[in-house]
Structures are given as structure tokens and as C-alpha cells.
Sequence to fold (416 residues):
Amino acid sequence: MVDDTQVRDELRAAILRGDFAPRQRLVEADLCEQFGARRFAVRAALQDLVAEGLVERQQNRGARIREISLDEAIEISEIRRVVEGLVAARAAERLTAADAKRLTGIGRRMREAVDGGEAAVYSDLNAELHSTLREIARHETANRIVAQLHGQMVRHQFALSRVPGRSAVSLAQHEAVIEAVVARDPDAAEAAMRAHITSVIEVLRSLG
Amino acid sequence: MVDDTQVRDELRAAILRGDFAPRQRLVEADLCEQFGARRFAVRAALQDLVAEGLVERQQNRGARIREISLDEAIEISEIRRVVEGLVAARAAERLTAADAKRLTGIGRRMREAVDGGEAAVYSDLNAELHSTLREIARHETANRIVAQLHGQMVRHQFALSRVPGRSAVSLAQHEAVIEAVVARDPDAAEAAMRAHITSVIEVLRSLG
DNA sequence: CGCGAAGCGATTGTCAACAATATGAGCACC
DNA sequence: GGTGCTCATATTGTTGACAATCGCTTCGCG
Fold:
């Protein structure tokens, strides 16, 4: 059976993968064919993705991929700065010995990836670090918000990763975050995470 | 004609007004009658409110008012602490002379309300202060998130306002926020707002 | 009397057809 | 050649009807 949450998840994955261009129209009939679903399910999926901020709808003109401007990407990053700061602080408070091992392992692999010039690997580790911190922090509300905002940023995230020399700067900041969390110092962890995302915001500004 | 956004807005208003109890079932047919709408529109409205976190749905068992536990209310307040901190800082940066006048006016009326023992008036002014700051900050993303989280908190907010001696403590904190914003000091404004919401969180914890 | 199966009413989930609307092409007219 | 109008077409919005499912009651059987 074709579950409507399945259509929603597949469509979201396709959007995050970059299968659709910003402002591209999402014609319901086409999506039905693409996902082998009924129009009813597609419609429900679209409504959900509107709520997630990935899709926008206009009365009688259907749905299209929402375009996130650079200004909005900066706003989103400003929120992420404070919310992920909270996540980092809380991870520092709740850290177990096993968590510490995981984090230092990610840090080591990050350094290896940067030294080896493996940009794609580093990008994956970046995602892994942030999501591991969220896992450690166990803050459901924060996780939901960060996940949603992250989804809206995918396209800009890609642009970020292509800025030359970015990974070296980013690596040092990530190591500072890991160090503070492993030291179980919430204030330092929050400050380090905020410093990291502040630098992301500065790069975004420089792209304007 | 009965617009489905209209049903959604009315239903949301009813929930925020406290017309429904937590965990109360929302039977589609009843809502149709109550709002004079078709089931189609009610269904779409419910789906939107699920996304807003006010309603929850279970397969084949329909929708009910989502109950927000005290723990979750604390989590939500932790997010609000950092996001409204950002809003306050940004309001301090963007403040105009007219804005300053509005804020000091709200502060003066707050003090009068507390001195006069008018709890309801003070509660309204509280909401007005926070929303005025959001207006001044003009941070769309933050506003959306705060509005959503605030909606989920209504019931607990009510409990808060009934804590004896709360308004005197709260007044001083609000005045500190206003003072810092009017002084155009972003860091002080953020700190003052965080201190304010920290105290809200402590009261919530004490209720557990 | 206890227990499980079957039936029932209430409610939600799904559908295919129909209505309403926007968009763009073709045409008359200036 | 340009401009505004009309109409065809593609697409979305809405409907009432029907199917599926749930929780509960009742009934049969040991």
C-alpha cells in the first residue's frame, strides 16, 4: 500500500537531494506518476512540506519549490546559531564517557579528511558531528527546529562547502566545540558553537 | 464561501482560547457543524495544526488536542530563551526613536498595572512587550518560531500568571530588557531577556 | 461465570468525478 | 505591428459517496 507519509518522505528526500530547482512547479499529476501514488496522497504530502517551509503554494496556482534567498539563509543561520549553541551546551552537560569517545573520533577523522583534501568526506563528518551533538543533548524541540531549518538551507550549504579554504577554518572551530563539550563546559561549548556559526554567517554575507 | 484557511484560523483561535481540553478528541463531523464548514476544509485545517504542534493525529483514530507536558514546556522555554534573546539583541540594533517611545510607554503601563494589582492588564502588556520587540527586530524566521512555540505554551502560560508574587519579579526583568534595548545595547538586551526567561523556566521547574 | 468471536455503530481514510481558476494561444481591431 | 479580447486547455480545488478501521457490545460456548 502507498502510505501518504511515504510519499511525503520520498518527496522531501528528492527535494533535499536537489532533484528540483528553486521555484520549479510541482504539478500534482506529475508527482503522482513519479511516486506511483494517488493524487490524494501527493496533495497531503505537499501540504506537509509547505508547513516545513520547503514548498510554497498559491491559490489555484499550485505548489512550487520555495526559494530561500540569501537574506533568509542568513536569518536561518542566526537562529541556528543560538539553538545549536543551546544544543552544544546541553550536550556538554549530559555527556557520557562513550559520547566523548565518539566525538573525539569524529574530530580525528575530520582532521584526516582535511589533511587528505577529501572535501566530501569532511562534509559528511560535519553533518555527523552536528547530529551526534543533537543526539547527546536529547532536546527534542531543538532537534525538530534545527532539522527543519537545516532542510531549508541545503542549497546554500552546498555553496558554502565550495568556498576555498573553508574547511581549514571550519575544522579549527569544530575542534574547539568538541574540546569544550568533552571538557563538560557548557558555557565554552555554547560560545564555541556560536563562534562557528557566526563564521558561517560571515561567509554567507560575503557571498551577497 | 468558507475558506479553509479561515477554518484553520478559527480552530486555532479556539484552541488557544482554551475551548478544548488537552487530549480532547476533535471529531471531524462535530467541527464541521461548529464552524459551518465542509469536512474537506476541517481536514486540511487539522493537518495544518498538526504541523504547528497544537494537534496530534493517530492513524484511523483521528485528531486530538496535543498535551504539552511540563518537561516539554521547559524545553520549549529553553528554545524561547535563546531565540527571544536574539530578538531582543536585534531590536536593540534596529531601534528607532519612535520604537523607544513605544517601549518606555509599555514599561510605564506595566508598572502601573503591577502597582494597581491589575493582573490581567499586566498579562496583556507582557504579550504586547514581547510582540513589540519582535516587530522592532523584524526577524521573520524568529517570529515564526516564537509564535509557534508560544501557541504550544498557552496552558502553561496561564499557570505561570497565577503564581503569587510573580508579576513583581517579572516587572523588574521586563524593565531591564526595555532599558537595555532603549540603550541600544544588544549584548545587554540579550542577557536581560535570557535572565527573564531563565526565571520563567525556574518557576516551571518548581511546579513539577 | 469467564472468555473469545462476531457484529455493530461511529469515525476516519480514500476515491473518482466534477467545478473553478489561471495561463497562454489565436484572433479581431486599431 | 501592437493591443486587448475570447476561448481552449491544463491544473488545481471541492464534493459526496464509499471503503476501511476502531472500540464496544453482545452472544455463544466451555
Remarks:
- The domain at 4-65 of chain B is CATH 1.10.10.10 (Arc Repressor Mutant, subunit A).
